[in-house]
Design a protein that fits this description.
312 residues, alpha/beta, Rossmann fold, 2 domains, seven-stranded mixed β-sheet, 9 helices, 30% helix, 26% strand, Rib-P_diPkinase_bac, ATP-binding
Length: 312
C-alpha cells in the first residue's frame, strides 16, 4: 500500500477528473495552474502528498505540447513533494501515431514522450486505447492500456437493428472483429487503394452491408476525411444507416463540418478528450463517459488488485 489515494487534475479534461472522483467517492486535490505572460506554466500542489498514492489525470490532447508540459511539471512537483507513487492517467496519449521511423532522420516521438514522462517522475501509466499496443514497450514502468469497448458497446447493444461492424482500414480489423464478436454482428472492411500517385483513393467494401446498420469502428477521429468518405461508399453499397464509433474525438481542422455534412446519422465517441462548446454543437456527436472505467482501474491499482479484469 502506498499511502492515501489522491487525485490531481491538469487543465486538459477537468470534467472527466471530477467524474472519476465522483465514482471513487473522493475530491480532487487542489493544484495551482497558472500561465505567465511569456507562456511559461506555473504549477503548485495545494496540499501535502508525502507518502501518498497520487494519480494525475491529464490527456495530452490539443494543445498537445501545452498539456504535455503541464503534465510533466505536475509529475515533477509530486516527485519533489515525496509522494510515495505517482501514476499518470493519460486517457488520450498524444504523439502515439509517431511510433516508428517512416522516413530517414525522423524521431520516434512516442518513445521520446515516454522517456520525458518517466524522467519527470511518472512511475506507472494508465491510458485508454493506445494507437498501437506495442507503444507499451516504450515505457520502463507498468502500463495499463485499458479498452473503451465496454462503454462504447453499451451504447450499441440496445439497438435491435441488423448490424455490421466495419473497419475503415486493414490495420483496424482486429478491433472491429472484437466489437463484432461481442455484438453478434457480421464484419466488413473498407479496402482503400491508389491507382497512381496524387490520385484520389478508390474505396471498396469487402463484406455485405446491404439493408444493414453499418458501424464504422476506429480508435480516433481526427480530421474525419477518410471516415466520411467511407460512410458515403457504405451507403452507396446499400446500407440502411451508418454510424461512426471511436474512442478519441480528436476532431481537428474541418472534422466537425465534415461529420455534420456526412452520411453518418450518429457519431459515438468517449470523453477521453474534452470537447469545447463549438464541437458540442454538432448534433450528431454522442459522448459516453469512461469515468467509471478509469475509476475502477485507479481503485485496483491503489489497492494492489488485478487490473486485467477490466480488459476485454
Amino acid at each position: 500500500m502506498h499511502g492515501d489515494l489522491k487525485i490531481i487534475s491538469g487543465s486538459a479534461n477537468t470534467q472527466l477528473s471530477e467524474a472519476i472522483c465522483e465514482h471513487l467517492g473522493c475530491k480532487l486535490s487542489p493544484v495551482l495552474r497558472e500561465t505567465f505572460s511569456d507562456g511559461e506554466i506555473r504549477i503548485e500542489i495545494g496540499e501535502n502528498v508525502r507518502g501518498d498514492d497520487v494519480f494525475v489525470v491529464q490527456p495530452t490532447s490539443s494543445p498537445v505540447n501545452f498539456h504535455l508540459m503541464e503534465l510533466c511539471l505536475m509529475l515533477d512537483a509530486l516527485k519533489r513533494a515525496s509522494a510515495s507513487r505517482v501514476t499518470a492517467v493519460v486517457p488520450y496519449y498524444g504523439y502515439a501515431r509517431q511510433d516508428r521511423k517512416v522516413v530517414p532522420r525522423a524521431p520516434i516521438s512516442a518513445k521520446m514522450v515516454a522517456d520525458i514522462l518517466s524522467v519527470a517522475g511518472m512511475q506507472r501509466l494508465v491510458t485508454i486505447d493506445l494507437h498501437a499496443g506495442q507503444i507499451q514497450g516504450f515505457f520502463n514502468c507498468p502500463v495499463d492500456n485499458l479498452f473503451a469497448a465496454p462503454v462504447l458497446l453499451e451504447e450499441l447493444r440496445h439497438r435491435d437493428d441488423d448490424m455490421v461492424i466495419i473497419s475503415p482500414d486493414a490495420g483496424g480489423v482486429e478491433r472491429a472483429r472484437a466489437y463484432a464478436k461481442r455484438l453478434g454482428a457480421s464484419l466488413a472492411i473498407v479496402d482503400k487503394r491508389r491507382d497512381a500517385p496524387n490520385q484520389a483513393q478508390a474505396m471498396h467494401i469487402i463484406g455485405d452491408v446491404k439493408d444493414k446498420v453499418a458501424v464504422v469502428i476506429d480508435d480516433m477521429i481526427d480530421t474525419a476525411g477518410t471516415m466520411c468518405a467511407a460512410a458515403n461508399v457504405i451507403m452507396d453499397n446499400g446500407a440502411s444507416d451508418v454510424i461512426a464509433c471511436a474512442t478519441h474525438p480528436v476532431l481537428s481542422g474541418p472534422a466537425i463540418q465534415r461529420l455534420q455534412d456526412s452520411a453518418f446519422s450518429q457519431v459515438v465517441v468517449s470523453d477521453t478528450i474534452q470537447l469545447d462548446e463549438t464541437k458540442k454543437q454538432c448534433d450528431k456527436i454522442m459522448q459516453v463517459s469512461t469515468a467509471s472505467l478509469l475509476a475502477k482501474a485507479i481503485n485496483n491499482v491503489h489497492t494492489e488488485s488485478s487490473v486485467s479484469v477490466l480488459f476485454i
